[in-house]
Each structure stands twice: as structure tokens, then as C-alpha cells.
Design a protein that fits this description.
Length: 93
């Protein structure tokens, strides 16, 4: 599936959206699994591909209580809310 990724200054994914909001967003092909959505910020854009940074993921896991991880539904809801807020902000500009 085609997504548009917002990438931070270190080339890690900040968010994914179905449509482009900013010109700086990068088009990526990805069919995210539940695990990929939960650890989206552990994916780094390298040569046009999203690559899992397993060290970063493990550091997050080591510092989290696994029973407090968001559910799949909570993760998707947060992504939808973020995208809606960003879209509203752009429309106001």
C-alpha cells in the first residue's frame, strides 16, 4: 500500500498518511502489520526504503511496561487524530 511518510531530521518516521499533506513527505510502499504501527518511529528511511532499527525498538521495549503498550485500535485512532489535526492546521494557513 502507498503511504506518505513524515521523516524527522535523523530519517526516522514520524507519521504515515494516505495522502500527501506536506511537500516534504516521502512516498513509501508499506503494508504495516500491528507491530509495525506500534513501532513506527523505529523505522528509518534508507535509500528510499523503510528499515527497522531493531536496536531502537529493543531500547523502547526495555524501557516500557508491555502491558501498557497501546492496542492496535488506540494506535490507529491516534494516527487518524494526528492526521486530522495536521490537515486542519494546513487548511487554516
Amino acid at each position: 500500500m502507498r503511504y506518505f511518510a513524515t521523516i524527522d531530521e535523523d530519517n526516522y518516521v514520524l507519521s504515515l498518511a494516505n495522502n500527501r499533506v506536506y511537500d516534504e513527505e516521502v512516498e513509501v510502499e508499506l503494508t504495516p502489520t500491528e507491530d509495525e504501527w506500534m513501532f513506527l518511529n523505529c523505522y528509518k528511511l534508507i535509500n528510499g526504503s523503510l528499515i527497522l532499527d531493531s536496536v531502537k525498538k529493543q531500547k523502547i521495549l526495555d524501557n516500557m511496561e508491555l502491558d501498557k503498550l497501546p492496542t492496535w485500535e488506540e494506535t490507529i485512532e491516534a494516527q487518524i487524530t494526528y492526521t486530522a489535526l495536521m490537515t486542519d492546521t494546513l487548511l487554516e494557513e
